[in-house]
Amino acid sequence: MQWKPEYSVGIEEIDRQHQGLIELINLLSRDEISTGLMARMFDELEAYTKEHFTTEERLLKTAGFDDLKAHRKEHKAFEQWLSAVRQTYGVGVTSPALLAQSVNAFLRDWLVNHILSSDMAYKDHVAANRSTYLGE
Ligand SMILES: [Fe+2]
Prior knowledge:
single chain; 136 residues; mainly alpha; Four Helix Bundle (Hemerythrin (Met), subunit A); binds fe (ii) ion
């Protein structure tokens, strides 16, 4: 999976974080999936949610984006999924390879339905309020 210019939401910092998620998806598509890789994956996803959702929500709030509440709900759902899948894996129900498959499917779905859809909804708003967002 490769980053494409049409994925851009017009804010460099957010685009970079989205690119980081694509890198994680690519790691999950490897042939060899180890327990260590999955542990690292969870740490990275945890960091992704903390850093990325905070950045995005802060920017949307500053600019007075109307649909922030609904957008936040989607972020919350991702956080809940992450903590649920982590717990399941923690009790040893799933093998690393099976887990990688299901995490991969979830993240691809997230990319299409959240990043390429809900995130795109604020793109025009960002462009119109650029000075409020970035102090430019
Ligand atoms: Fe988002």
